[in-house]
Request: fold
Amino acid sequence: MKFERLELLNFASYYGEHLIDLTCAKDKPVIIFLGGTGYGKTSLFDAINWALYGTDYENDLPRLRRGRSIIDYVNESALSEAEANNRFVEMSCTLYFEHDGTHYYITQSLSAKPVRHKDGALQAMPTDRITALYQIEASGNHKQKPYDAIFLNEILPSNVKDYFLFDGDRIYNLTKPEASQQVQDAIYRVVDLELLQNSAKHLTQVAAEYGREAKREAKGELGNVEEHYNNERRHLEQLKDELKELRDQKHALETQIRAIEAKLENLPDTSQLQGRRSELARQAKQVEEEIERSKAQLRSWAATAALKLADKPALTLIELLDSKRQKGEIPKTVSQTLLKDLLKIKKCLCGTDFEEGDPIHQALLHRLHIEQAKSNDQTLLDLLMSLKTASELISEANQQLKVENTNLQKLENERKDLGYALDQIDEELSKLPQENVAELTREARERREALVANEAKIQRTLGRIETSEQKIKEYEKQRQELGKQQATVRALQLREHLARQAAEEIEKIYDVFAENSRKAVEELTIQEFKNFVQSAAGYTVGLTENYELVVYDSNGNRALQRLSMGQSQCLSLAFITAISRVSEKNPPLAIDMPFGRLDPVVHRGISARLPQLTSQLILFLIPGVEWNEVTTTNLQHKASHIYELEFDETQRQTQIRKL
Reply:
């Protein structure tokens, strides 16, 4: 998708009609709008969004623009003229764009009536609005198309617009600890994961419907089994929903705790104590992970060590076999005798008669030759070696079990010591005289206690899910057996099974695709962050499994809170460009105030890199602050158009001049 032209009529400070060329050459993908604060840069940004998304963007405006609504964008001069001439005023935005070689344009138009209030204020009251989408055919004809979400979702879905058409001064919020859900949503939407999830959900619903139909058709005992089966299926889905909710709560609690800890670390009176606490918490987490690994290793060694009960009889058997072998008391293997008898009577153990040359005769004869090729000595040697190896493994397992038990005890003691140290720091924090410190410490403690309770609920729910799944397996066996007697029901059972199996396979694909996408976004985010910020070499950037953007220092401590707002903005920008590349959508990037918080060095790195990351880059810059010697050097030769906004403060109108 590429924007081609923007047409405005009485929109915000743009009185009358304005036509803006947005086409760009392949080697010059940049379009720049220059203007001071209040000159109309953000209004152009809003015009593009409104043209594309209409009422969806209108619903976002109060959140984005401090309570402003779309009717507030009607130009003041146009509204005054309409009142003077006793007529309605029209405001519109039309965006021309190209997608996959086809040209389109969307128009959002609003008619309003001027209303003068008793206090003298003149306000626009909407009377009518029109949304129209046209396709420009090769013949030159303009064919109107239905304006619907399906069409736009194929090009640039409204639920991802915040990640391609965004405010650079606000986008740094993505790096805040509480923004992990927003980060996850960005990946989920941009790389189309919701398509897989919706498919799995639909198939699960289809399977449930087949299950209900099978229940209606089933008779007798099968009908009771079908009812129990369907009820247990619903119970399992409820448990899974509960588990998801609990895990979301866990993630929210962890996020809140990190946010509180970050606040405490930034307070002068608590920074040292909280820094120490964060380090101890990191160590405690590592010890917990080591304890889990140690327990897993113990379970592994214990399974082998438990064979110690058979160790002594095995050694006795070795001595006995060796003694009998030396005395020549061990006959040819029993299998040879049995095979010879079968060949003699020409009858298999299963009762099947055979003749010489039959496949059964040949198979038995071949087996006899193999057994005859074995010597008693070799057979005994194989047995002796197997028993000896087993004895050695049992002995080694018991030794390792002792070592691992000692290690686990050491880790458990270390965990206790760390727990005591953390409690002591919490006690010291709570006793500090500053009221906000005590409050933050109390909040952190409450959330940690809630986190422990939450984990207990998660484990209980996992146990209930396991029990429910086992019940379903038992019901499935009964359904299959009883269903053989009712063909119609059995057919519905098979359809339900296939639909559920397909849903489970799609869910597996979703899990793999989601994780691969997360890793790809993480890798590109790291790469772009280093390209943007040369001073980031000492930091390690990551995107956790919980979709949280994290930064660690050289000692492995969380360092996100130490980033400046400019660095945080760079990290957010690196993330956004990463998901754009992973999605392969290659949408236009329109950024309002992209360099406002950046120092000259970072400014230089980003302005040089951005044109390489997209086929169309639209920037709204403040002269002097963002459009300076550095930006001019890096962007001017990459720009197809540079526009300057001139604002008349007397008439409160903006004119657009191309440089």
The chain has a mean pLDDT of 82. The chain has three domains: 2-156+585-658, 191-271+430-512, 272-331+374-429. Residues 2-156+585-658 form a domain with the Rossmann fold fold (CATH 3.40.50.300). The radius of gyration is 37 Å.
